[in-house]
Design goal:
Length: 417
Amino acid sequence: MKTTPISNHSEIGRLNTVIIHEPGPEMENMTPETAHEVLFDDIISLDLALKEHAQLSGVLKKVCPNVLEFENLLADILTDERTKLDLLEAVCQLHQQQSLVDDLMVLEAKPLAAQLFQGTLMVKNNLEKFLSPSRHAIPPLPNAFFTRDAVMCVYDKAIIGSMAHKVRLTEAILLKHIFDEHPKLDSQGFHFDGTRKDNNDVTIEGGDLLVIRDDLLVIGFSERTSANGIDRLAERLSKNKEQLDIVVVELPKIRATIHLDMIFTMLDVDTVMNFAPLITGPNKCRAFHMHCERGEIKHIKEYSGLPKALRNFGMELNFVNCGGEDAFTQEREQWTSGANFFTFAPGHVIGYQHNKATMEALNQAGFEIIDALDIIHDKKTLPNGKAAVAMDGSELSRGGGGCRCMTLPVHRDAVNW
């Protein structure tokens, strides 16, 4: 079995290994009344979501040598009884269901992996449980197809997320065990483990962390990633570096901007997708430059916005506007994840085709727009120049994320800046 080392030094290097998760029956374990409890605005059609997600996985399998499925990786490590017990004890303790450990231990690896995603029903065998509004003793994981958030691969190690909402803590536990135990992943420990009890006072999620270069990160200070979480990352990630610069973007604490990658993603060495009102407009988000050396934050400086802060590091960028130039369309398409592109090679990106004004803006910026199905069925090949693959995503976007949210890069080629 070939082992993949963690190597992620940019947002745009050619993709070699990525983890995704196909939506499953867990998506159907919610009602309009309970959707908000699992961070959804509405219930989602699984059949439609599967057809759309198949386009993402189909394109990735054409452009990336190793596309790994979260559930399969989980089933692999559950064949080891010690790992299985450790994982189940951690999950059951999280949900205060320690009595279920023995019952779950008897399940075979694949059915158990599936059940961990789909949830474990609550046996209503006493009054407290009978009166409980919950159907599940261990809840399902409808957010698990957003693999980006619970783990971040940065440089040569992973960061295990410290999730802002309890409904996503199970994902972090499962992925921690995968990165710790799976023979396909050469993980040399963690920069930070958000599942540890001594890290409960911080929140850190992957949608807020962008690796620009070896010496430069951009991090969102959002409703999902806290200031003390960013401080902790700054100290850990700079520990073995002579210097590390981090630009922090202060996001509005609202649903539309839960993570930085909902308003800003890298497309190429010199091009970014942005939601102009919060990145380049007159009411743009404040930015802070944190300069770190050998595990210490040396100084912090405030900037009027992200573009000015990045120019300080020699990054003169072309800003493509999510939603084009019209303010009304910008707001609509940002809401439907129009800025959330995933870059799988320099200048080669994938995003949702229903955001038509955004795709037109990309085309005007020199990106050839190619339908995902044409790539999957070998009707078209990616050009040497810039290209944006357009996939169906109207249903997936209702879950609150886009292509970057649904991908966890493990290994990328280096980029020459």
